[in-house]
Design brief:
Layout: H1 9-19, E1 24-25, E2 29-30, E3 40-42, E4 45-47, E5 53-56, H2 66-78, E6 85-88, H3 92-97, H4 117-139, E7 146-149, E8 152-155, E9 160-163, H5 164-172, H6 200-204, E10 220-226, E11 234-238, H7 240-243, E12 248-254, E13 258-263, H8 266-275, E14 277-280, H9 290-300, E15 307-312, H10 315-321, E16 324-332, E17 344-349, E18 354-358, H11 363-374, E19 381-385, H12 399-409, E20 416-419, H13 422-427, E21 435-443, E22 449-458, H14 461-465, E23 498-504, H15 519-536, H16 541-546, H17 551-564, E24 574-582, E25 585-595, E26 601-611, H18 618-637, E27 643-644, E28 647-648, E29 666-671, H19 686-701
Parallel strand pairs: 5-6, 10-20, 18-19, 22-23, 26-29
Antiparallel strand pairs: 1-2, 3-4, 4-5, 7-8, 8-9, 10-13, 11-14, 12-13, 15-23, 16-21, 17-18, 17-20, 21-22, 24-25, 25-26, 27-28
Helix pairs in contact: 2-4, 4-5, 11-12, 15-19, 18-19
């Protein structure tokens, strides 16, 4: 997920002014606030007398391991004992009150580490400097004669030692350094090591608190339903039957778009909600279907007007002049986030205060939503982050937080947990956008690719959620993995004549950020078509790509190919390859599959290569790659949301299937870090899972699968 809804600048400035946040010095490390712990060395580092080191983590933890990775970054520079490290989440309200000392709370787009590594390491280095200076002052020796290692400070000439816990109070009183020098990567001993995750023990013993688990004294539970047709408003409702049902406290309209029931328990609220007679407004959206959406997108494939995302030379002319032209049309459906934990938030509102407890990928967006819904200044509101039972981009939005606060306002002084049903979660998702693509390539007499035109027709996430981020109407996120060299997700191939454009077509169904976002379908469109071009030119797919790939892209593809022994699979199995760049990292995959005579697909193995620049925790990278393939392959095999009469047809896991463990291939990860940059890990590799498998299916069967999911296709040999 690339973009998450930001808290407004105005809200932040107003909140900071009211709260009178601490003065930021140097590179943003504020002096401790009056209410802060006396052992808070700086905003990021708290040290207890027993030498426990508490590292504060602003980003969200949803299973991806950011909590551990960020702690490793700070611990590396702090020179603390890793066995004594623990973590805590500061709140976005505290962040506002302290002049945003923890900076960005948003967690998405694989940005948790790659966008905060610098200031998190600086925080650790600054704390180390202050601890050393405090010890030196106590010993009356120059700080330059002292060094820190494993939470112990040593005066090198005399060999005297003291632990962090014994000097933390004194260190907290010192001025932070205005500048710090970070360690050279060659001297790292914590960064780059496969350290155990900090949250695993509490996770497996049930100590971690997720939003759905939260219990507060006197808490009531609410559930809610909005129109099954996105965008339609509430016309009327009759709650006469529901209000007399056991445990029911209140039935209310929420934001003019939904009906909620508050009761003693969730099941009481859910039963009562079913008894409410609701009338939704009638709009033309009720006539929309998956078929009508597909026709709209099909029209965009040949439309004259389109936003140009990448252009070099004259692709149309080169293709027209080529002795051989290859053309294909691909399609990618709506897909659901299907987080294991449905959307939920707990709110407690009074006349002058609002508190929210929730799983969120963007604490500041949740804070802004809570303040707006409560009608209170940001300084009188706060959000307490819990662990997330899945995020995948869906929890970057704060619609469920707004609903929870609006409901809790009607029950002042009483905490109310809003818990969506699975059916509501399925219906009210912000779905992976639906698109089609038409690709046309020109091949000369020598089998060289002379021109490529990739036309995307389909939905814009920015148009759905963040129209203010459109660039003269263009949505840059549409072109993930296809952007020109100057942009983050660089296009991999050096093709003399290139045109990549987008005909924006926006159905009423809300599009949203979904793990890997547009990189997923763009990798399919590009890499499956490159395979088609290679076969049309009579060349091996790897050899064909090598002619056009830029160095780092080629290096990761070759690394994956070498590890997989590409071109020499076991008998009865077939290889497919794919590469892409996204979220700051270069990734490639080789899939090994077989297809039985009856058309049964078996994905035996996927070898994935990743160049993310610097690797913080190699074990965690391997887990992220494997996890991304679970997600990507589930989407390829089964993922499809369909529309009938304007509404979502899928209602639960019985109609939206998930990949089973016996379907999961062996995953081998090859790390090829070249250093010099910080790339993402959680999202890039998901993009290469599907195209590598689709290309392997062609190798096995001679069939080109150009639309997903695979469950709709007969895979018996052509």
């Amino acid at each position: 997920m690339t973009h998450l809804a930001p808290i407004s600048r105005r809200s932040l400035m107003v909140g900071a002014a009211v709260a009178g946040g601490g003065l930021a010095v140097g590179f943003g490390l504020a002096r401790p606030a009056a209410a802060a712990s006396a052992r808070e060395v700086n905003a990021w580092i708290v040290i207890l007398p027993d030498d426990t080191v508490v590292i504060r983590i602003a980003r969200s933890e949803m299973g991806q391991g950011t909590l551990t990775g960020l702690a490793q970054l700070a611990a590396e520079e702090l020179e603390c004992d890793w066995s004594k490290v623990t973590t805590e989440f500061p709140t976005p309200g505290q962040n506002v009150a302290r002049n945003r000392v923890w900076r960005n709370f948003a967690t998405g787009g694989s940005r948790g580490i790659r966008e905060s590594h610098q200031y998190v390491r600086e925080a650790g280095a600054a704390a180390r400097d202050m601890l050393i200076r405090a010890a030196a002052e106590a010993w009356k020796v120059p700080a330059a004669e002292c060094a820190a290692a494993k939470s112990v400070i040593t005066h090198k000439p005399s060999n005297r030692t003291i632990t962090f816990g014994k000097v933390a109070d004194a260190a907290a009183k010192l001025e932070p350094p205005r500048e710090v020098k970070l360690k050279d990567p060659k001297d790292w001993h914590t960064i780059g090591k496969p350290l155990k995750r900090l949250d695993t023990l509490d996770k497996v013993t049930g100590k971690l608190v997720y939003g759905a688990d939260l219990r507060l004294p006197g808490m009531l539970t609410a559930t809610i339903t909005a129109s099954p047709i996105h965008g339609n408003k509430l016309k009327s409702f009759d709650a006469a039957r529901a209000t007399s049902m056991p445990g029911v406290k209140k039935v209310l309209a929420v934001d003019g778009r939904a009906v909620a029931v508050v009761a003693d328990t969730y099941w009481q609220a859910q039963a009562a909600l079913k008894a409410v007679r609701i009338v939704w407004e009638d709009t033309p959206n009720a006539s929309v279907s998956s078929a009508s959406i597909a026709e709209t997108l099909k029209e965009g494939l040949t439309a004259e007007q389109a936003f140009v995302g990448n252009k070099q030379g004259d692709a149309r002319a080169a293709i027209a002049a080529a002795p051989r032209k290859v053309e294909a049309v691909y399609g990618y459906p709506y897909q659901h986030h299907v987080t294991m934990e449905p959307m939920n938030a707990t709110a407690l509102c009074t006349a002058d205060k609002c508190e929210v407890w929730c799983p969120t990928q963007n604490g500041e967006a949740a804070l802004a939503a809570a303040a707006e819904a409560a009608g209170l200044p940001v300084a009188k509101c706060d959000v307490h982050k819990t662990m997330l039972g899945g995020g995948f981009g869906r929890r970057g939005r704060a619609d469920y937080v707004r609903q929870a606060v609006l409901i809790a306002k009607e029950m002042p002084g009483t905490p109310v947990k809003l818990l969506w049903s699975r059916e509501e979660d399925m219906a009210q998702c912000q779905f992976h956008p639906v698109t089609q693509a038409k690709l046309t390539g020109g091949i000369d007499a020598q089998g060289n690719l002379t021109g490529l035109h990739l036309r995307i027709s389909g939905q814009s996430i920015f148009a759905s959620l963040l129209p203010q981020l459109l660039q003269n109407g263009l949505d840059p996120v549409v072109f993930q993995g296809l952007r020109p060299r100057r942009a983050e997700a660089t296009f991999a191939y050096d093709i003399p004549n290139l045109l990549i454009d987008h005909a924006m077509r926006n159905p009423h169904v809300t599009a949203g950020f979904w793990r890997g976002v547009n990189l997923n379908q763009n990798a399919i469109y590009l890499e499956c078509f490159m395979d088609e071009l290679a076969h049309a030119a009579g060349q091996d797919p790897l050899a064909f790509r090598r002619k056009y790939l830029r160095p780092k892209h080629r290096a990761v593809l070759e690394a994956a190919a070498a590890k997989a022994n590409y071109g020499k699979p076991p008998a009865g199995r077939f290889h497919g390859i794919a590469q892409i760049m996204g979220f700051g990292s270069y990734v490639a995959a080789v899939a090994e599959v077989s297809v039985s005579a009856e058309g049964v697909l078996k994905i035996h193995k996927i070898v994935a290569a990743t160049d993310c620049g610097y690797v913080v925790n190699p074990a965690q990278v391997e887990r992220q790659v494997s996890g991304s393939f679970v997600y990507g392959l589930t989407a390829a095999l089964y993922g499809e949301i369909t529309i009938k009469d304007g509404a979502i047809e899928q209602t639960n896991f019985d109609s939206y299937n998930m990949m089973r463990i016996d379907e999961m291939p062996v995953v081998e990860t090859v790390l090829v870090p070249t250093g010099g940059f910080w790339g993402g890990v959680g999202e890039p590799t998901i993009g290469v899972a599907a195209p590598a498998v689709l290309n392997a299916i062609f190798a096995a069967t001679g069939k080109r699968i150009r639309t997903l999911p695979l469950m709709h296709h007969d895979l018996r040999k052509a």
